């Protein structure tokens, strides 16, 4: 069973802010480097002294705040996602002069899907049977989600799996709209580290390791769900 990678999010929070003047000065340049276009005028993508915009061509969302960088990619293979995030991160990293700042938290979050061809109710019943004992609460539940905090080989992980309807997926999970004709089993896996050295190469290595972990854990869960 091969799960579909729906989204990858790399988020880095710093203990102190970037140089606010530096962000203001480099904001138009960052926008143009990433999108190949001139920034809108007046700037509608501004968040305080930062920047937020979607690059529709790459299915990429960029958020740059004084103490936070967040990059989100959708509709890509894991190899394409890594390449796009790495290239985008390299454009930003030195422009905002954050390489000397202490990282407070780094997280690489992946969202994975498995298409389910029958009804949402049938998928919900599978989740109930696989993860919950028989009880009054189980029989009355109209929706469920399995939420765990994991730790494995030094990785700290916030883990969620749940059935999700195409409407929920479109309105609550995805940034970029796409044609959806089915409901899905979903995993949302946030691998994080709160004691991480600020090193560009290690940041990308952490991203790669986290994506591979998310894929492995998702396959395990989907095999449990859809075992014969």
Question: What can be said about this structure in brief?
Answer:
This protein has 228 residues and is an alpha+beta fold. It has helices spanning 20-35, 78-93, 120-131, 136-140, 166-173, 200-225, and strands at residues 4-14, 51-55, 60-65, 68-74, 103-116, 146-152, 155-164, 183-193.
Short key terms for the protein model shown above:
eight-stranded antiparallel sheet; alpha+beta; TATA-Binding Protein; about 230 residues; single chain; globular
Q: Can you put this structure into words, describing what you see?
A:
It is a single chain. With 228 residues, this protein is an alpha+beta fold. The chain has two domains: 8-105, TATA-Binding Protein; 108-225, no CATH class. Helix content is 36%, strand content 31%. It is built from six helices and eight strands; from the N terminus they run βαβββαβααββαβα. It has an eight-stranded antiparallel sheet with strand order 2-3-4-1-5-8-7-6. β3 (60-65) and β4 (68-74) form a beta hairpin. α2 (78-93) runs antiparallel to α6. The longest helix has 26 residues, at 200-225. 28% of the residues are buried. The mean pLDDT is 88.
